[in-house]
Amino acid sequence: MDTLVQLAQGVLVCLQPFNLLMLFLGVVFGLLVGILPGLTLVMGVVLFLPFTYQMDVTSAIILLAAMYTAGTYGGAFTAILFRIPGEPIDVPMLWDGYTMARAGQPAKALGWTMIAAFMGGTLSAIIMVVLTEPAAKFALRFSSPEYFAVIVFGLASVVSLAQSSLANALISLCLGLAIATVGTDTTYGASRFTFDLPILADGIEFLVVMVGAYGVAEVLTRLERGFASAGVTSKTTTRTELPSLRELNSVKGTLLRSTILGNVIGIIPGAGATIASFVSYGVEGQVGRRKALLGSGIPEGIVAPQSAATASVGGAMVPLLAIGIPGSGATAVILGAFMLHGIQPGPQVMLTSGDMIYAIFASIFLAILLMSVLGFFAIRPLVKILDAPEAVVSAFVIVFCFMGALSIRSNVTDLWLVIAFGVIGYVFERLRFPIAPLVLGVILGPLAEESFLNAMISNSNDWTVFFTRPISAVLMALTVLAVLLPALGALRLRMRSPEMEAKSGA
Amino acid sequence: MLSQRIWLAFPYAALLVLAAWFYRLAGDFQYARQGNNLGPDFWPRAVLAAIMIICVVQGARLLLAGRAPDKPSIGAVEEDDEAPRSNLLLAAGFALTVAYGALVTVLGFLIATFAFLVLFMYAGNYRSHATIWLSGLIGTLLLTFLFQKVVYVSLPRGVPPFDRLADTLLALF
User: Fold this and answer.
1) Which residues share a beta bridge with A184?
2) B150-167 average pLDDT score
3) Does B126 sit within 8 Å of A389, measured CB to CB?
4) 3-state per-residue secondary structure call for A4-54
5) Distance, CA of A383 to chain centre
6) What distances in angstroms separate CA A376 from CA A15, A79, A497, one per listed residue?
7) Min distance A133 CA to chain B CA atoms (Å)
8) CA-to-CA distance for A326 and A321, rounded, in angstroms?
């Protein structure tokens, strides 16, 4: 009951004119970011970060959280209507969504998407509200060793879920951790890797790393390919037709399964909406009632990835708000927004600033509702954004990156750092080094170092403390599993391939 | 074949050298030691040592066995489906980006941004002149207004005589 009252108060905070405007803008821009193939969800959220500097923290998080939520939905329109997935999240939408549209039911496919996003998102948001406070209370038991262990687990999950090799992901993470050490050390006041440059004495802002590596690098990579995104080839209906209650009843198992799966995947650090969408589609192919028909344009093939993708938002917010560990790339940016306002999310904030936290919860419910309404009524004007030439959009994206850099400290050196990290991001892309571990390393590096050193000081440099305290020992064991399991999987795959080749040769 | 393997291992060798150099630099940090506590060099050195170890292992693997197969990538677009890379376009993009960084303090935000937007759109093979010039101009003015008057960010004014334009525009806003 108390939770419901606080949530209702959160809704009232969101309905204040400025917050409502931020919510609306967040949803609209989130949908547009999802629709535009050249702009990823994380990049979109990063680009809006500078606008939040002058806002109070609640409005800032409402804007970014609304963008994040709506960004998991917008790309489905173009995937279904034009076979253009705006985000990697929407690739599974091509298999059944686009097939259903080609079979003459685009309005129905859009209706299924809307229902999946709405129901998956709402159910996941309810789970988020229920889970976050107990998780935060549990996290109150944490001291330095537990914090260090939870950060290590989060970073290990990011590494193990990286899309390239494990070694490259580890190097990327370590580089991020190394970059985070630049500047004046907080314990001893020692200058580390500053080369006597005053701007480096304050350290390298994680923002310049994010804006450069995600924004500038992505635009340069697309420019190198001549901005050759697939064009819109056919105009079709942009009407939405909702499924009937009987039709809805037939997919309730898929909806529930995918929502829970999306929520759980969202909670795991590093596994965001894309992984939720693919895994959920894969699970539907394994256990779904009509698994044999998957790929032929059935509603389950739309509901599974969409509900899981939107449900991952609620899941990813739980570790962010309860422990201060981001569960996805977008929540890493939201963590950045908190930190820019001098707030380190975690159990203390959760329990002392309940008003703000419940306003953020409420904003996610309202964002889901608003994005569904816009998805129903405003698809036509939203997908018009695809008519904008990619060269024009990209030119503005890169200028936004520059302005983001100039906004940090009004110093041109930050602009140079953004450009430098843009180049590094581009090199990473060419060499297939994942960027997410680098960025998370920079964000969580100071926290990891601080909790590690505090644990060492409190325990006379006895490193076994991480393995003798129950919670940290469990987290460390999970870390080992998180790193070893994918490595073992890759090894098994490699051992199998010669066998398969030998068999096919015979 | 060997040259290809050396080429594959090169980034790891370069990183190894870089990490080793920073590792050595970490030994020169100036600080007052406090009992047996770990110093400010411990954490960066541990991280750099990890980079060096991974680079040695991965570099050796690539030299001995060639490229290891990548893990299947979720949501990734197949290379074959993408347009070919153009070094010329990339060089143009880099040159414009670096030129912006170098000139924004001289020309000021207004002129540098307008020039960057227009040139970047041309570099991106877009040829609708009216759209390019108009969107460049309107975009620059809008962004300047937004950041100077709404977000209150101090943007570079440039040096004389370019700063006059920024002053005139600010007076108009």
Assistant:
1) A191
2) 82
3) yes
4) HHHHHHHHHHHCCHHHHHHHHHHHHHHHHHHHCCCCCHHHHHHHHHHHHCC
5) 23
6) 22, 16, 48
7) 32
8) 8
Q: Which helix (H) or strand (E) holds B161?
A: none
What distance in Å separates the CA atoms of residue A92 and residue B154, rounded to the nearest whole number?
Answer: 44
pLDDT at position A444, please?
Answer: 83
| Residue A387 and residue A381 in contact, taking contact as beta carbons nearer than 8 Å | no
Contact B83 A175 (CB under 8 A): no
Q: What is the DSSP letter of B35?
A: T
Axis-axis angle for helices B129-145, B87-123 (nearest 10) = 80
Question: So what's the ipTM on this one?
Answer: 0.89
Give which of A179, A234, A187 is closest to A425, Cα–Cα.
Answer: A179
Give, in degrees to the nearest 5, the angle at Cα A50 between A49 and A51: 90
A412-449 tens-digit pLDDT: 888 999 999 999 999 998 888 988 888 888 888 888 89
Q: CA B147, CA B157: separation in Å to the nearest integer?
A: 13
pLDDT at A238: 66
User: Where does the pLDDT of residue A163 fall: very low under 50, low under 70, confident under 90, or very high at 90 and above?
Assistant: low
* Whether the Cβ atoms of residue B10 and residue A431 lie closer than 8 Å to each other: no
Residue the block writes with tokens 């901005």 = A227
Length of chain B measured in residues: 173
Q: How far apart are CA A486 and CA A480, in angstroms?
A: 11
Cβ-Cβ contacts under 8 Å, A171 against chain B? 15, 51, 54-55, 58
**Residue A431, CA atoms < 13 Å, CB-side half-sphere:** 21
Q: Residues A165-174: what's their mean pLDDT?
A: 90
- Residue B3 touches partner A, C-beta closer than 8 Å: no
Burial of B115 (0-12, 13-18, 19+ CB in 10 A): middle
Taking CB atoms and an 8 Å limit, are B89 and A226 in contact across chains?
Answer: yes
Q: Token digits for A439?
A: 């960025």
Spatial separation of the C-alpha atoms in residues A254 and A113, rounded to whole Å: 13
Question: How far apart (Å, rounded) are the C-alpha atoms in residues A398 and A404?
Answer: 10
Instruction: Note whether A456 contacts B37, CB cutoff 8 Å.
Output: yes
Calpha distance A314→A122 (Å, rounded): 9
CB proximity under 8 Å: A 403-442 to B = 403, 406-407, 410, 412, 415-416, 419, 422-423, 431-432
pLDDT at B173 over 80: no
